Amino acid sequence: MENQPQIELRNVTHAYVTDTGPLPVLDNLSLAVDTGKFTAVVGPSGCGKSTLTRLIAGLMTPDQGEVSLSGKPVRSPRSTVGMAFQNPVLLEWRNILDNVLLPLEIVNNNLQQKQREDRAFELLSLVGLEGFEDKRPSELSGGMRQRASLCRALVHRPEVLILDEPFGALDAFTREDLWQIMHELRREEQFTCLLITHDLRESVFLADQVVVLSGRPATSQYVLNVDLGDRRSLEDLYTKESVEMLAVLRQQIQIAQGRHVALEEKA
After folding, report:
1. pTM
2. In a domain, 114, yes or no
3. Which pLDDT score, from 0 to 100, does residue 229 have?
4. Disulfide engineering: 137 pairs with which of 62, 90, 112, 208, CB 3.0-4.6 Å?
5. What pLDDT, on a 0 to 100 scale, did the predictor assign at position 137?
6. How many domains does the chain have?
7. Is residue 94 in some structural domain?
8. Which residue range(s) make up the domain with 15?
9. Phi then psi for 170, rounded to 5 degrees?
10. pLDDT tens per residue, range 84-140
11. Which letter, b or e, does each residue of 41-64 get, where b requires 16 or more Cβ atoms within 10 Å of its Cβ?
């Protein structure tokens, strides 16, 4: 018997209701992420990538098709899912430690307060924020706030981590630093991850597979398997294999945007 994917979408179709009628966003989209794997999703702007995350998180249900986690249909939000977004959305009236602890106040657990704090301290140390536990969010840089956001998403040990462009607003150096921290988190924590990103280098550096979505209404256009090993360095992005993978992804994005036709005609 085959192993059940941790995340699975089967023939998902979805449209938003607007004043001018339905706006199709996803069309017969199927996608699967195996347990413990990291999948990145890329595609043209506005193709429905964020809608995909909301469906997996149980914040909405599809018009057609099915979304499942560990083989069970997703009908509502689950405590086994952690999420981090482009905006860290940390609460200014809480210090960093209390921001990270927030999910443990919401999710049912049998942990004592010291156990909760120990877990938060463990994660903060792992991402390089040891000593900043008592700081307010406004006292931290953008990269540091995003590290705290990742800790908050993982503090309750979710089975699934959803990342919706968490590094998109950061400068290039900070972004690359956080890519390496994500690899460290993967080695230390057990979770299945789905990343939404516009950065093709980010997708290749972090993921085991990259799914390219077509233009809206989006379906799965292309799947690239990334074979760079579990321990990666930034230098791996400059190898022949990585350069070739990035070229394939850029071509697929052009196809999704409809630009390949114009380029061929121009040629």
Report:
1. 0.91
2. no
3. 84
4. 90
5. 97
6. 1
7. no
8. 1-74+198-267
9. -95, 155
10. 998 899 999 999 999 999 999 988 778 899 999 999 999 999 999 999 999 999 999
11. bbbbeebbbebbbbbbbbeebbee
